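Issue: ligand-bound run for zinc ion - logging full I/O for the record.

Environment: standard queue, default settings, no custom constraints.

Inputs:
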Amino acid sequence: MDRLHLLLVGIDGLRLDLATEDRAPHLHGLIARGELTRMTMPAPTISGPGWATLLTGASHAEHGVVDNTFVGSRLAAIPDLLSRAFFADPARTTFAAAAWPPLVDPAGVGPVIHTRDEQRRAERHRVVVRDGETYGYRTTDAEIADFAVAGLFAAGPDASFVYWSGVDEAGHVHGAVGAEYAAAITRTDAHLGRLLQVVEHRASAGERWLVAVTTDHGHLDGGGHGGAEPEVVASFVARAAWNAPLAGWPAAIDPTELTPRLLAALG
Ligand SMILES: [Zn+2]
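Outputs:
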């Protein structure tokens, strides 16, 4: 049987309680097809430590990332989800696309996703980097979506991570309660919808796919995160599968469980 393909989508700073069905129809379609699991992020609820935990399974104390400078990071010794998928089976191809450079940029701080230069040269690991911090996420998220659609459509990588940060950006600039945050959710949900269309297309040819969507923290109503308020620590994993059974997960898991559970699903 064809091996399982994994797509993990990261939507930075997404409050699920504000991602209502009318604002995020594709995310809700994924949940309706599959399962929703809750997670509670540990403080400080900052993107660097949050994604470092979600993408490696290491706790804050273990990976040493305390903020977005990555000073003190021990990530060089802690392989990420995609690297571990490759190490478990070197026949696997991987793909990562993000406009927040610390996650993927080989030239930047981090990156959380190991660069694996040999595999990149061999086109076994593809990385797409944009700089949303400089150029804004509205533009760069759309570019990431374009590249991810093309990358998934053409190559059908075995394990992928695609990340968008326009929702977080809107939360910081405008707060979470308002039209701008809602519009950013809808724009990002449309990006997700395009990826799900690619998955549908590839699955219609018989491929087996698991798609998961998660976030690293929420936002205060007025915008901002970092603390331990309920609306800020609330995270989730939405999962659905195509041509494959979906393992039942508990109603809530710890953020350190995400990577090992996804790797277990890959087999
Ligand atoms: Zn974040």
